[in-house]
Amino acid sequence: MVLEHGWAYGSKGHALDSKEVLVAVSTGAHLADYQLGSKQNHTINEYLLPLFSTFTSTRMKILKLA
Questions:
Q1: What is the CA 14 to chain-centroid distance, rounded?
Q2: DSSP letters spanning 20-50
Q3: Percent of the chain, pLDDT > 70?
């Protein structure tokens, strides 16, 4: 229900506009395991792509660590 059309997105959905979001991930594995051709065969960013697409489509502000 949070991502409902007309509330979080769409021409009348602005509830999440400019809300800040920060994603922190802990895998318990080596970064090398999250590369193309490695154990996981995908980067961490590839796994997170659906989340970032949602943040973008709801006009959220994605924070980055300095």
A1: 18
A2: EE------SS-GGGSSTTSSS-S-HHHHHHH
A3: 98
